[in-house]
Write a structure and sequence with these properties.
The chain is an all-alpha fold. The chain has one domain (39-348). It is built from 14 helices and 2 strands; from the N terminus they run ββαααααααααααααα. A two-stranded antiparallel sheet has the order 1-2. It is globular.
Amino acid sequence: MDVRGPTILDVSKLKRGASILPDRRPDVSVLFVDISRFSSNVQFIICCVAVFVLYVLYGYLQELIFTQEGFKPYGWYLTLVQFALYSIFGTCETLALSLSKRRIPLKIYALLALLTLGTMGFSNSSLSHLNYPTQVIFKCCKLIPVMIGSILIQRKRYKTIDFLAALFMCVGLSYFTLADSQISPNFSLVGVAMISCALLCDAAIGNVQEKSMKTHGATNTEVVLYSYSIGFLYLFVVMMFTGDIWHGFVFCADKPHIYGYALLFSLSGYLGVNVVLTLVRTCGALAAVTVTTCRKAISIVISFIFFSKPFTIQYLWAGSLVVLGIYLNLASKNPSLSKKLGDLLDKFRRPFGYKRIRTIETTV
């Protein structure tokens, strides 16, 4: 017979604001596999591996589609097919997981859909005017508009090393674009304008998604489904008025294998989007962009190996500057390394009479 009596918890010994219940970690899944039981570092590594595999395949298939004879004018039609498939995938996943309640307001999804359409549409169409490596180099510099978007939308503050990283990226990007304009037969300022618009939309997407998902607790599936289905409606209406939907359908009807490529292209992209959204929700927009930026280096190497195109040593130097900018941005996330680099920058500034001015923000 148990005579110990009930267990008494001395709540006076609990710290202020502490909970009696054990902490419950949020559910995290990658490719429909629950990884919540792993540490945050292991979760990050799993997400990184998934992003690299899926988006390297995505990039290969994207360039493969645009190398099909005569396909270059139909970038927006590919975007329409891609959005339709994303909507189907999202609907199937929603039904499988029994997710019915929408958490984020429709007005936010209307904005997200427009930004997503701008990102995907301009990115696909830019390949009609640019080499794939040049497009990828532009995407590598997505950190710049993301920083600007974070400052304007979320009022984030960045260190000097982050702005130095942005400077290296700008110089490397300019150098790479100049080299491409001199040797590439497939270069146009229209392509530069398109990929620049895609980057601006993408920068806004990451920050709006991060803020909305954290505020409303929405799932990846919900965000993907509503963003792409509403975006599909936008593009479908526009292409019906312009007649481009019929031209694209007739062209692809003569080459049905393009739909097979588009299916694999969309499937890898859809799964990749889900993994990136998991990164956004768990690590933030900047960390997600940093990971997707690093995988683009592999995509560039694969592009030169599998698809013939002119090459110049200037590509290497320009790419190195961009990689240096990415490294500095990653280093700024490491406290000890960031401090060492900050001290090094101070040594360079001292001969020029630089003195830090303490403002209200730095003293409060």
